[in-house]
Amino acid sequence: MESSYYTNTLHVNFESVLAMDDPGMVSMFQALMASGLEGFFGCPAVIYEAALVDFFDNASVRDVIPKDSVADARSIVSSSGEPISMYGKKREMKFEYRLLCDIMEKTISVKAGSFNAITMEKFLMLTAIVCGVRIKWTSILFNILKKMVTLGSNQAKGYAVQISLLLENFPNLELGESSEFPSSKILTDKTVHRYIVLNEKVGA
């Protein structure tokens, strides 16, 4: 399978990142787990190429989030302490929330464009995770997946991992040969530390 199927995607090795010596990052990943999204963001060991190709060949968040939670999040995620603009730049956030923004951009949205921008859609998702708002993620993610999985679209290619995991759970389905998921697409303690270093340079 061509690597284009997972070019824009990003997944998390939770066991590795939760062992980091960085309270802020660990707290952010714990919030991600508590939200119920661990299974969606987690990285598999392998992906099934033939099954994915066959799937592609044949095959917006609207939940209300409390306004006070959104207002709180604007200050919680801000690196300066001042409420952040929901249409601002990602560099205005603390490192852990910049990374959370990236994870959502590349694993949920999978949209082409600037990865340095904060959009209303991403901010509402971020608020739900950071503030512990109970959201029916299953319904949201399924609807996004249903809309995005269009043959040949860049968005569809970003869902290779999630689709592979779904197919793996079907009984009596022959998936054929598998290939190892590329380590460059998995967040570990090492890659998160590198993320911090790179962002420190950008911030400076």
Write the layout of secondary structure elements.
Elements: E1 11-12, H1 14-17, H2 23-34, H3 38-41, E2 46-47, H4 49-58, H5 67-76, H6 95-109, H7 120-130, H8 137-148, H9 154-157, H10 160-168, E3 179-180, E4 186-187, H11 189-203
Helix pairs in contact: 2-6, 4-10, 5-7, 6-7
Characterization of the model:
This protein is mainly α. The chain has one domain. Strands 1-4 form a two-stranded parallel ribbon. It has a two-stranded antiparallel sheet with strand order 2-3. It is globular, with a radius of gyration of 17 Å. It contains eleven helices and four strands. The protein is 52% helix and 4% strand. The mean pLDDT is 77. It has helices at 14-17, 23-34, 38-41, 49-58, 67-76, 95-109, 120-130, 137-148, 154-157, 160-168, 189-203, and strands spanning 11-12, 46-47, 179-180, 186-187. The N and C termini lie far apart (40 Å). It comes from Dorcoceras hygrometricum. This is Dystroglycan-like.
Mean pLDDT: 77
Helix share bin:
40-55%
How big is the Rg?
17 Å
Note the run of SSEs as H and E. EHHHEHHHHHHHEEH
Total DSSP helices: 11
Instruction: For the record, give the distance between the C-alpha atoms at the N and C termini, rounded to a whole number.
Output: 40 Å
| Biggest beta-sheet profile | 2 strands, parallel
Gross morphology is globular
Spatial order of strands in the largest sheet: 1-4
| Count of domain modules | 1
Question: Into which percentage range does the β-strand content fall?
Answer: under 5%
Structural class: mainly alpha
Protein name: Dystroglycan-like
